[in-house]
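Good morning C.,

I know you're traveling, so I'll keep this short. The sequence:
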Amino acid sequence: MLTLSTTLRIRPFRLQAWAVLAVAWALALGAAHQARAELRIDITRGTVEPMPIAVSTFNADVPQDQAIGRDIAQVIAADLERSGLFAPVDSKAFIQRDLSVNTMPRFGDWRVINAQALVQGRVTRTADGGIRVVFRLWDVFAEEQMTALAFRSVAEGWRRLAHIIADRVYERITGESGYFDTRVVYIAESGPADRRKKRLAVMDQDGANHKFLTDGSYLVLTPRFSPTLQEITYLSYYNNTPRVYIFNIDTGHQELLGNFPGMTFAPRFSPDGKKVIMSMAKDGNTEIYTMDLRTRAVRKLTNHSAIDTSPSYSPDARRIVFNSDRGGSQQLYVMDANGGGVQRISYGQGRYATPVWSPRGDLVAFTKIQGGRFFIGVMRPDGSGERLLAEDFNIEAPTWSPNGRVLMYFRTTPRDDQGNGGSSKLYSIDLTGHNEREIITPIDASDPAWSPLIQ
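The tokens, ready to paste straight into the viewer:
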């Protein structure tokens, strides 16, 4: 028997035009309360051996919903496997295939195939044509339920439900928030090197639900999500003039934020979404500015003869990290949100660029260029603990997952004497540096930006 414990509303992502209602349930199978399981992955200890987990096909009564149940299970398993923390057990090894959400699993059948955790579920059709999805997570060796939830959605929202369930599993076992119910905006590239077409594109974090947002008539660069998820700020060259735009994903409307003289670089939203911070070349000097989105008032934060660029706010908006050559080479600096208290934080060999503050506030990611090679690395906001995670011929522009545990960036291959090569692809890697994955896109891709959690 299922008993209701909590009702949660999950904010819809309007680009997909779905509404989702989540309902949390507790399982009453002769127990007075939901058991507290100890199954846990500690993801703070460096390299972690992936946990074997079984994700069974979600049951359903009709063929249409049976297909949805299979697809949901496949997406959940793929999300968990891609994190590097879980090793989904091959379904061909499953012994018990008559799983029901209303009865306890035969735990011995799952222990014998070495599954430490089990995800099961069911899909049913609602009166309005939508779907209701129930799932349960079990600790196989303790024979205890870890969590159980039910969701309602339009039928087309099944993929997002799968990401949400994968987040719940990740959160329950690791103790950290998930990052699967997210989107990525990036620059889609095509055409020859001297006539490169660059379009704004958006997709789920796993590459699904891909959509081009601009048609490539004008060059676009450096897209960034707003905290609300419904807007993207980016730089576009309209008639060879750099302009900063805000693109509304709901409506497709583009709003001109500013037509600034000289060059403008890397606009980003402030954590509260009320400002945009960027660098502008004005009167022959590149400085960092903010613009109030309500009043359109522009404020200059730096005042130095050097090039100051690539600003990024800390999560609490009290500090800003940026790169500057004011010390003689391109290095990372941190300053107060009002422009005061500038301090250099990078002292390693080579040049540092494209810093971005972690959503957790504990690290700054960056691109490093040294000896003709590019690196993606992280350091603490005071400059200590520098670690390099990835290296290649050209690898740059890191962006954080919303839980601060994974980075995404792009890698460009070198061109040969005949002009072949030069393709750009997106990759992700976790903070251990041992789980690098390519993110598949329809065409070449660069400059990704990860959204906050959608819900």
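Safe travels,
E.
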